[in-house]
Specification:
heterodimer; A: about 290 residues; mainly alpha; 12 helices; about 0% strand; B: about 350 residues; alpha/beta; 4-stranded antiparallel beta sheet; 11 helices; 14 strands; binds adenosine-5'-triphosphate; binds magnesium ion
């Protein structure tokens, strides 16, 4: 008989070596998600079209803020450059805070979440692995938007090694400082499944008060709103990105360095808070028996 | 480590808030169960008895309200990571939900091998061998969404074995498999237990299968463990009763079943396959006489009437004591017959 002999013989053999380092599990999650993305054949076409249309929309709304106001705030004179950086970064922001939650909800519904969580994967490996895919995809989109802006709309961006390097540092800080918020939102979403209040509220507030489409100096007369904009990490991301890409500033400039410092602080505070929310969400669904809810 | 599985006073009630009210569904009540390494235990129970609930607690996906459970020596609450390394879990009923349908079979297995810390070279070999065994080699590089239900279940089985865990939690692993594959899977599980001393907790609604496979059977009913014994011992529990099987030419009518039930020598009536009733009686020879007479007056055309040995199925129905299901079509509990192995 023994059609199963090969399986038994195989499993009888002892395993060489010990456990794999955790980073590669994070990477395994990332690669898996990337493969799923690429299995949708029209993905790239759709993304490219959305880049072009985004850039076009902001070209047409590009005449509402006076150049003087921009110049006073220290961002040069070009509104299209100003808005372009804001829009590109805010799309990235949306990805950072919604990505983990949305993929996780999808996995909860399809049942793979349960299967993955029954393996010795750590929560941080799972969430960071999922987030990385979002960063890669949005990074590509952001670069596309900026490039389209320069080439099609003639946005005057400063491209020196220093300005680009600084911009990259701020993109990394954008990911890091908003990763915690994304994980936090996922923890809430895990329990409630439908609706995503955190992402919605945060995204809206950020669009309005972090100065995506106008310089914050316009809020001068409204101390409450201005104060509010000062506690949003995204405000500092925009400041750093714009100072570097519009005026060629680097981290050597005190204002830029201060913005970076604030973002490092936000990262250090928000990631542990996010993980706490995720752990609690997981325990809640494990109590309710909803790790694989259909 | 004396026990591979040590469950002590485990309780679980599902709570769902509805407005101001909280709806409570008790699923496990004070369940205790000890399983030695290498044992192969069948976990039985009617739908909703709590089998899946117990298995999910053991694989750390569900938190119990009370009691404790250790698996492979690790506490399911405090050492969940070690527990997850020790188990191969499968929920056959979900029909492939553990898999990423947009990816290929091989990509799925490779991913889970990574998560289980199987070194890549070993993983490659295991994936090939397992895909071969389950007859999926030719479909290895096709997307899972193009697989049939049975193929997905096979892939989930392969997933559960990839990391060679000491404990297998098999929640209806043969559901959806065709006759041949179900049998090969049973053979595999049997060898895993006999030759590699895997501890196996196995649920199925196919009692013929459980009887053939599991030397020990535990029965859950409404969240309580109502029996836990060797399979022969359990069958012997019915030795004071005897079973008479009556097969008619036509389907039974409710009134007929009702009349049989009221005969003095008949203790209970259960449906047992196509047009067949299994009657629990005190003494078969006398009951057969009485039955023949009654059936004659009722005008039932009998194809076959005989005494037979009590089977696990009879014990199960006796213990879980639901009202007769004789006039309904065969339920999942009345397992489809298969040729003997
Ligand atoms: N997530 C859940 N929320 C609320 N009640 C649940 C949940 N999961 C299961 N139940 C209830 O708990 C009880 C036990 O269910 P369980 O799935 O453990 O039964 P089972 O023995 O596996 O049944 P089956 O043979 O149908 O698979 C049932 O009454 C079921 O309705
Ligand atoms: Mg079940």
């Amino acid at each position: 008989m023994s059609a199963e002999a090969p399986v038994i013989a195989l499993l009888r053999r002892p395993l060489p070596g010990g456990s794999r380092p955790t980073e590669s599990k994070t990477l395994a999650v990332t690669l898996l998600r990337l493969k799923i993305f690429l299995s949708y054949r029209y993905f790239f076409v759709v993304e490219l079209m959305s880049i072009v249309s985004l850039a076009a929309v902001y070209y047409f709304v590009g005449f509402q803020v006076r150049p003087e106001a921009l110049e006073e705030a220290g961002y040069g004179r070009s509104y299209i450059g100003f808005a372009l950086v804001g829009v590109a970064a805010s799309h990235f922001l949306y990805t950072c805070i919604s990505r983990i939650g949305h993929i996780m909800t999808h996995e909860l519904m399809t049942g793979t979440f349960e299967a993955v969580m029954s393996t010795p994967v750590k929560h941080r490996e799972y969430v960071v692995g999922q987030a990385l895919v979002g960063f890669v995809m949005s990074g590509y989109l952001m670069a596309g938007v900026l490039l389209a802006g320069v080439l099609l709309l003639g946005a005057p961006l400063v491209a020196t090694p220093g300005s680009i390097g600084t911009a990259i540092v701020f993109v990394l800080l954008l990911m890091a400082s908003h990763l915690g918020i994304g994980i936090f939102a996922a923890g809430i979403l895990m329990v409630h499944k439908k609706g995503d209040p955190i992402t919605f509220i945060l995204d809206t507030l950020t669009q309005l008060f972090a100065g995506v489409l106008f310089p914050l100096s316009l809020l001068k007369g409204y101390p409450l709103l201005e104060g509010f904009s000062r506690v949003l990490p995204f405000t500092y991301v925009l400041e750093g990105l714009r100072k570097s890409l519009l005026t060629g500033a680097t981290l050597a400039e005190p204002g830029v360095a201060r913005a970076a410092g604030v973002l490092v602080l936000a990262t250090v505070i928000l990631i542990p808070l996010g993980m706490l929310s995720f752990h609690r969400g997981f325990d809640k669904v494990r109590r309710l028996g909803l790790t694989g809810s259909y | 480590m004396d026990y591979a599985l040590e469950v002590e006073g485990l309780s679980k009630t599902y709570r769902k808030r509805k407005g101001f009210k909280v709806r409570e569904t008790p699923a496990l009540e004070n369940v205790s169960l000890r399983v030695r390494p290498g044992e192969f235990v069948g976990l039985l129970g009617p739908n909703g008895a709590g089998k899946t609930t117990l298995l999910k607690i053991l694989c750390t996906l569900l938190l119990p309200d009370g009691g404790s459970a250790r698996l492979n020596g690790f506490d399911v609450l405090k050492q969940s990571e070690e527990v997850r390394r020790s188990i191969g879990w499968l929920h056959g009923e979900t029909g492939g939900r553990a898999l990423y349908w947009r990816l290929t079979a091989r990509d799925n297995l490779r991913f889970y091998a990574y998560l289980q810390d199987v070194p890549p070279r070993v993983a490659r070999e295991r994936i090939d061998t397992l895909l071969d065994f389950f007859g999926l080699r030719g479909d290895a590089d096709r997307q899972v969404l193009k697989f049939s239900t049975g193929m997905k279940v096979k892939l989930m089985l392969a997933r559960a074995l990839l990391h060679n865990p000491p404990v297998l939690l098999m929640d209806e692993p043969t559901v959806g498999l065709d006759v041949r594959m179900a049998r090969e899977t049973r053979d595999l599980l049997r060898s895993l237990s006999a030759e590699l001393q895997k501890t196996i907790l196995f649920t199925s609604h196919n009692l013929t299968e459980v009887e053939k496979l599991c030397p020990r059977v535990a029965i859950l009913h409404r969240g309580r463990l109502i029996a836990d014994d060797t399979t022969p011992n359990l069958a012997a529990r019915l030795k004071t009763r005897e079973i008479v099987e009556v097969k008619a030419m036509d389907a039974w009518r409710p009134a007929e079943v009702h009349r049989l039930q009221r005969l003095p020598s008949v203790k209970s009536v259960e449906a047992d396959g196509e047009n067949t009733l299994a009657l629990e009686v005190d003494e078969a020879p006398q009951a057969i006489l009485e039955l023949a007479q009654a059936l004659g007056t009722m005008g039932v055309r009998v194809q076959h009437i005989a005494q037979r040995e009590p089977r696990l199925e009879d014990v199960f129905l006796h213990l879980t004591g639901e009202p007769t299901t004789a006039t309904k079509p065969p339920t999942p509990e009345t397992a489809p017959r298969e040729t003997p192995e």
